[in-house]
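Q: Sequence in, structure out?
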Amino acid sequence: MPTPQTLVVDGQKIAINVSGTGNKNIVFVHGASMSGETWLPQLNDAALKEKYRMFAIDLPGHGGSQWLSHPDAYSLKELAHILRKTIEALQIAPFILVSLSFGTCLAGEITPPPANCLGIVLASPSVLNHQLDLSEVLTLGPMGHVIATESPSDDDLREYIRHSTTSEAVARTFYHSYRNTDPAFRKSIGNIMMNGAWTDELMNIKEWNVPVCVVFGKEERLVNTHYLDHYDPLWNGKVVMIENAGHVINEENPDAFNGMLDNFASAVFKNF
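A: Exactly. Output:
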């Protein structure tokens, strides 16, 4: 099982689960109202554990990490700052960054790029930018308001989860994580969406000058799976599509996701 650790970053307690004995590093960032628990199918994978040292971060207000209290606590800028400082506090090199859903937005808000990052995986990416309207990126469905509602009804939450995944196990994990997340985080998400409070995350990532693996599940229903088809830094020049998976690809089809991750990491780390 992964080993839980706690770091103090800018006075905030950040929870991390650590796994593996390899000499190359992978850092995982979960999505909105989720937790590092979503990465257990990767942290517990025997083949990945043998080759890599893996770190699954709980974002502020999520999982075992401390809830924030100052007025701009959950802005993209602040969360990206804490994420960057957390990665720096791990004191690892080299590494690849694997982010899921909202976590891909935070990766895109980190500028300049963190030292020693050799590649990025954007899983179910909702990376925001100045070229496309939100409606061209997100396809949230009739219960999309759940992502920005502090305390939605159980009926609305469960309907949103059913829209995002057909896996009962994934649904249970997400429901638990959602209810354990600071509701103020979701209020901030609403403010961000209303005010367009993001930078050009696609351009920021492009300026990292590293390979970018974009991966979607073929059953994805929350994000337009074609909006990154022609993104310049794409690894192998194409978006990876995984069978039998929706939004939470890494849990819904872990075998395929882990194989893709190992292929990408092996290619990125081949000279190290």
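The longest strand covers residues 12-19.
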